[in-house]
Amino acid sequence: xxxxxxxxxxxxxxxxxxxxxxxxxxxxxxxxxxxxxxxxxxxxxxxxxxxxxxxxxxxxxxxxxxxxxxxxxxxxxxxxxxxxxxxxxxxxxxxxxxxxxxxxxxxxxxxxxxxxxxxxxxxxxxxxxxxxxxxxxxxxxxxxxxxxxxxxxxxxxxxxxxxxxxxxxxxxxxxxxxxxxxxxxxxxxxxxxxxxxxxxxxxxxxxxxxxxxxxxxxxxxxxxxxxxxxxxxxxxxxxxx
Length: 241
Prior knowledge:
Blueprint: E1 4-15, E2 18-29, E3 33-37, H1 44-51, E4 59-64, H2 73-78, E5 80-83, H3 95-105, H4 110-119, H5 135-147, E6 153-157, H6 165-181, E7 185-190, H7 193-199, E8 202-207, E9 210-215, H8 217-220, H9 227-235
Parallel strand pairs: 3-7, 3-8, 5-6, 6-7
Antiparallel strand pairs: 1-2, 1-4, 8-9
Helix pairs in contact: 3-4, 5-6
C-alpha cells in the first residue's frame, strides 16, 4: 500500500457562525495529484490552510508524513511548497533576483534557480522586473518559487483563476511535467472541472464544508457526462453558480 503523505481525520473548523469544514476525512498517498473541486465557499481553502499549518482545526487531527504540526513546524515547512490564488512580489526585483531571494532561504544557489526558470518557461524574462510580468507569467513565477525547494508536498490554491485559457494551459503543462518527473504529492483547489480532470489522479468534490463524493476521474464519471453533471445531481445546482 502507498505511503500516506497527508492524513486528515474528522477535522472541523468554524469561523464565528460559519461552519467552514465539517468532519472531513482524507488520505493522500505519495505522488498522488488530488483536486479539491467545489464552488466558492465550499471549504477548500480552509482545508488547505489547515493542512499547510496556517489554520488550526477546532477538532480532529492532521498528520503530514506521520507528524503533527506542533513541534515539527520547521521540518514540515521545509518539505511543503505553496502557491496561493494571488501572490504578491516585490515589483522592482527582477525574476532572477526574486528566485534568488527564495532560494537563499533553503541554501540553494544559481544552479537551482536556472532549473526553475527553465521549468516554468521564464528564460526570456529572467532579467525582467516583476512589475512588468503578465498575470500568467507572475503565476508561473509563483509556482517556480513553490517548487524551488523540491517539495514533497505541493499545495496550490486556485492557481489559474483569472488567467486566460492560454496562460491556464501553460500552468497545466508545468504541473503535468512535474507529475511525470517527480513523486511530489499535490493538492489543487479549483472550481474548473477540466483542470481537475486534466491534472489529477483523484478528485474530491466539496460543498458547504463537506465531501460529497471522491474517487478517480474514471470512477466519478462512469455514470455522468461531466463533473458538473455529477455536482448538479448531488446539489441541484452547477458548480460555478
